[in-house]
């Protein structure tokens, strides 16, 4: 009798653990699919789909888009994204809703293993239990894909996961998002998306030498790109952008000022371009009205036009750049990005502009803007001194002002691009 009671209790516990995430509840599943899109899950969790299966292209309609295996570059080494299809051997098929929420909210796997913040639980901790359950319900509807992913690829000593206990004590603030009652519902929705599911700070907040966050959304180097500031700073952030310009950029991947490329192109293509207009507007409202006032960064003095590096840079720009970006740096609206007054090219770090010059870049393609203009690579025809010169010229012309780029900066970027993970 006691044995039957115990078995019944365990069965009831298992039902309670999964009851909130019901793959047969189509309203919940549809909401979970949308929330997974808002969280841009597919961009990281795509990858190889098992032996004999070609590399998967991120696709919201395909389970292979969630089969894991993509290598994510961090300052401490590469981490491969997990398989989050409901495969019972290599995915999350044996997980309960409670265990999924623990991973999202606390950063721990069902066996208690600590996750690395390459999985942005530091942002996902803001996600509500209902939303976590909805995402889990959606993932359970995917076809299981057997794809064993090596989750321990960091070198010693970073492969010691117990060290995450100390890291979490220093840098992780657990807690579900709490609305600000002094703000509008729209503002709070934007805050929830930016700080939670959107995990914008994971890229756009600078990191210290231990990988902890610095000034929130102030921009920083990431995977050989420089994620620009998203603060209300007018020169470096989005303070000079209108809400409509932010919405257009997130919906189409471009506006009159800029075009999304690199990791941001993936964010647009697989996430924000598929979100509702009201959610994009809420994000814009939140970014334009930050919770705390932003100290406007003082601009450095631009280099003089007769500076030797500026003269060299101008000659290179006139020969290879102005046909698209124009002599005035205004570019072609929604086609070739404006360089004059560009927040991106004036960031403290020159990584993005160096990468674009050396390797080229391709803008995002979306339903609203299906043609993705591309910039050719110039690394094959320009030496490091010339690359640094044209980057410096762009960063200090048409009213722009930013630190000069050195030949050594260009050399380091060229070397790094030989091994960078896409």
TrEMBL record:
InterPro entries: Cyt_c-like_dom, Cyt_c-like_dom_sf, Cyt_C_IC, Cytochrome_c-type_DH, Membr-bd_ADH_cyt_c. Coiled coil: none annotated. It is found in: Cell membrane. Its main location: membrane. Its cofactor is heme c. The keyword Cell membrane applies. Keywords: Cell membrane, Electron transport, Heme, Iron, Membrane, Metal-binding, Repeat, Respiratory chain, Signal, Transport. Residues 27-143, 185-291, 308-398 form the Cytochrome c domain. This is C-type cytochrome. It comes from Roseomonas elaeocarpi.
